[in-house]
Specification:
Number of strands: 12
Helix content: 25-40%
Mean pLDDT: 86
Radius of gyration: 20 Å
Largest sheet: 7 strands, mixed
Shape: globular
């Protein structure tokens, strides 16, 4: 177990700008996803390929010289039951994939930003950090994420030179190699992170003298693999930009539940960091139908279908799997499989959840969950 190490309270200088509330959105983005899936930033692919090729030699040379390419898996989480059961599944699949051929996965830490230990400290390697002061996140829980990384990077002993920033609702479907290339982190491109469409607003946080707004990658912080030294530089800026955006009425209204993702993208650009955009990093059922060669399932969207296998687009289906159905307790073991005709990605997700819950001790023992 990794415990609390010389922890102090959050610095007021980092917190003073935070204000206003957060408009929480759930998976009712489905129509927007469908409309935009086909127009996903293809224009980035040429630059991505060129960048990938130009720095691959650097990484291969490092491997020949015996430098480790391992990355630390860092999962930010809370002590809520909803976060705990997802973290248990995520950690189960990390352990299954960690030592398989092709993996560069190193050690694991659940960065627990609830301020005190919980019931999973002996099951999952965990490091306790402070949340924002009471009430300051105004319901926008993920605003604690950048501040959690600042504390962890400052206080923890991290042996690996790279870090994977991950989330509880990630499942590893195959061994994950280090996709970063030296000073170029790797990240997943999100179609809804569009800095160029909000240039006037973005300029409040990314001034003209820093360069073209297209220098801001269409990413969030997760999933991303990044050099530890780079993240140590970016993380305090990420905190500050997040707080400034939260305190800006226009930014809060425009960016909503993805404000912290925009903040990470802007903070990276302020440090001159460009990411290698890897669409194979992750898939998101039900809108990505095939697992293919991708590495992570992100089950953020609800999967709702008729018994004939038709997706019901935001309407509760006759068959469903939605993590938000289990806010206060874990899902049961042996969830029924989807009906015929449902995409392979959804079937794979349910099978992987079922395998994990069948093998995690005390899965439905509620004393494990706060």
């Amino acid at each position: 177990m990794i415990g609390r190490k010389n922890m102090g309270r959050a610095s007021p200088m980092l917190l003073v700008l935070l204000a206003l509330g957060f408009l929480f959105a759930t998976y009712n983005l489905s129509t927007l996803v469908i409309q935009n899936r086909s127009s996903n930033s293809e224009s980035l692919e040429a630059d991505e390929t060129a960048l990938f090729d130009s720095v691959t030699l650097v990484t291969e040379k490092a491997k020949r010289e015996g430098e480790s390419n391992k990355f630390h898996v860092a999962l930010t989480a809370t002590d809520a039951a909803y976060s705990q059961w997802q973290s248990r599944i995520m950690y189960y699949w990390y352990k299954k994939m960690k030592d398989l051929p092709g993996s560069d996965m190193g050690t694991f830490t659940r960065i627990l930003h609830s301020g005190s230990p919980d019931n999973l400290m002996d099951e999952i390697p965990s490091f306790v950090v402070d949340p924002l002061p009471d009430g300051l996140d105004r319901g926008y829980i993920v605003l604690n994420r950048p501040w959690a990384f600042v504390q962890w990077l400052e206080k923890a002993t991290i042996e690996e030179e790279y870090i994977l920033m991950a989330e509880p609702d990630h499942i590893f479907v195959k061994p994950l190699p280090n996709l970063a290339r030296g000073k170029h982190p790797a990240a997943y491109p999100f179609f809804y992170i569009t800095p160029s469409e909000h240039e006037k607003l973005i300029r409040k946080f990314y001034p003209v003298e820093k360069g073209h707004v297209n220098n801001i990658d269409p990413i969030g912080n997760s999933p991303a693999i990044i050099e530890k030294s780079l993240l140590e530089e970016i993380a305090p800026t990420w905190v500050n930009v997040s707080l400034r955006m939260k305190d800006d009425h226009e930014a809060e209204k425009t960016f909503g539940w993805v404000l912290e993702m925009y903040a990470y993208a802007v903070a990276s650009a302020l440090h001159g960091v460009r990411h290698i955009l890897r669409k194979d990093f992750m898939l998101q059922p039900p809108f990505d139908s095939d697992v293919g060669e991708r590495f992570i399932i992100h089950y953020t969207y609800g999967c709702d279908y008729t018994l004939k296998g038709k997706l019901t687009y935001g309407k509760i289906g006759e068959w469903r799997f939605d993590k938000r159905s289990y806010l206060s307790s874990p899902p049961p073991r042996n969830i029924s499989l989807p009906p015929p005709g449902v995409p392979e990605s959804v079937v794979r997700l349910v099978k992987m959840v079922n395998e994990a819950t069948a093998n995690i001790p005390g899965w439905d023992n509620l004393t494990y969950y706060n």
